[in-house]
Amino acid sequence: MEREIKNRTHELFNKVPEVTLFFWIIKVLCTTVGETFADYLNVNLNFGLTGTSIVMGVLLIVALFFQFKSNKYVPAIYWITVVFISVFGTLVTDNLTDKLGVPLETSTIVFFILLLLTFALWYAKEKTLSIHSIYTRRREAFYWVTVLFTFALGTASGDLMAESLGLGYLVTGIIVAVIIALVVIARKLGLNPVLSFWIIYIMTRPLGASIGDLLSQPTKYGGLGLGATLTSIIFLAGIFAIIIYFSITKRDRIQSSAVEEKEEAADKGLIWQTVITIAVFIIAGVSAYYWRQNALQNQNKQPGSTVASKQNTQAAPLGDLSVFIKITEDTRQLVVANNLSGAKTRVADLEYEWDNAQSKLKPMNTAKWTEVDNAIDKVLRQLRAPNPNQQNCKSALDALLAALK
Prior knowledge:
Order of helices and strands: HHHHHHHHHHHHHHH
Structural class: mainly alpha
Helix content: over 70%
Number of strands: 0
Radius of gyration: 23 Å
């Protein structure tokens, strides 16, 4: 009788979906849409990073209110909350990096530790980390705090690989996909299901960013040229289609008859496997990081490199920036001619080249790089505003030229 009552409690209050293939598909879609939506508010609507953070923070609070208020899993509410928390988690990292100047290495370490502490506290209080047991308010609170930190960590580690280490989003996506595949294989060989779930959950964030980047980037930059708007529409359509499918078929509902079995399996080998996995990730991550840093340093020392030698650092903190100056001057000429559409197209080259050069330029002089990066962001916001103003665009470009020179 006690077991039956417990099962009924699970059936009434479990607040998360069953983990299926569709779960992972919609998770990746939510990650990508969330990021493009944040970029739309930040750049296209000219909210800026602070304004976007405030808007998304309010939307997340509203979504969490309805999520906690509901006494059962509701697909639409749950997945909207995932979208908003993915955006907010990303913005937390972006604010630390862009506003406070915190290195991505530091953000990655801090969020990694915070995530581990959250898991430790959750397990100490509840004796389980299984998402098949989210049927109390406290467990649900632990769950959403954990999800927030997974997105923040996924953003920091993904950006560290793609931008600071100069791997790019495509290579980063391939690396992440390989890690996910290895975890899936390890799961079939006996890796703890809860540990497997959370590793993949973290990794799907940089994977989603890589897929979105691949689809939206112009073909000349190696993308498929769909653009951010069309990519977002396609992904939103996919999200809504899966939510409708879940709502009709109920196939994402956790079956109460299987909960106990899954909870028992979730505890087997969790602690010792987690310790070993953390050690493997730390050793592999630190080794790969220093290997890549050494490769970048050697590349920067080669003759003909765009990065200036140490003897020129004082005169030109970021070395030869003629490529960026040329693009900026071209963009300014188009703005002066009132060809704002052409200027918007040309400035995309600046964004692409600057992002590609980040891993080489930023280590040379972080303060100067941040100054130029902020100036570029202002130019992008002005030119990509819904109704760009010619004078404002020209002023932003003048400020950028001054920063570059």
